[in-house]
Write a structure and sequence with these properties.
Elements lengths: L31 E3 L1 H30 L8 H26 E3 L16 E6 L5 E7 L10 E3 L3 H6 L7 E6 L2 E12 L9 H13 L2
Length: 209
Amino acid sequence: MSKAFTKETEPADDLEEEVIDTPSSLPAGSRNYITPGGHARLMDEFQWLMNKERPHVTATVSWAASNGDRSENADYIYGKKRLREIDRRIRFLTKRLDMAEIVDPAAPRDDETRIFFGATVTFANEKGDEKTVAIVGVDEIDTSKAYISWISPMARALIKAREGDVVTLHAPGGTEELEILEVRYRMIPMEPFGKADEAEVMAADTNSH
């Protein structure tokens, strides 16, 4: 293995233990780098909340309010709570979309052997075990597909390195050297926002209080 490029990072979890990003996880003043597919998902969720979910809940609240005593009206109480949750999510998505800088992973690069946002990277540890990850935005993380955010410890260890380089990662289990075997820039598939996502958003908002 060539050690022409060696970089160390702060202590970090392994890919499987990567922490899901929170709304405040973007570095202060940074752009919200995101793939076209990830941006489309956020936009579709925003449109669903604005054009379907919020009007539906607003109508339910209006109907419930017309039924009398609001203090004991479950439909009214839940509806008002749901409206607050929807509005909070809309504000979050508005900020994310306003900050978004769309980067197409499949766009031509001057140096396609060097790792930046949107790269799909295959590397091997000292035991020879290989792993492939794709570096995506903070709202696109999917550990089941090995999609890691560009601000994650793993991505920070890889970014700016090239094929054949070795990077040093300090993981909870100890220091580990990773050899970069392949760097590719290609489309990173993203599932479109759909019914399952609608149910997940509603459940997450309900469980947050």
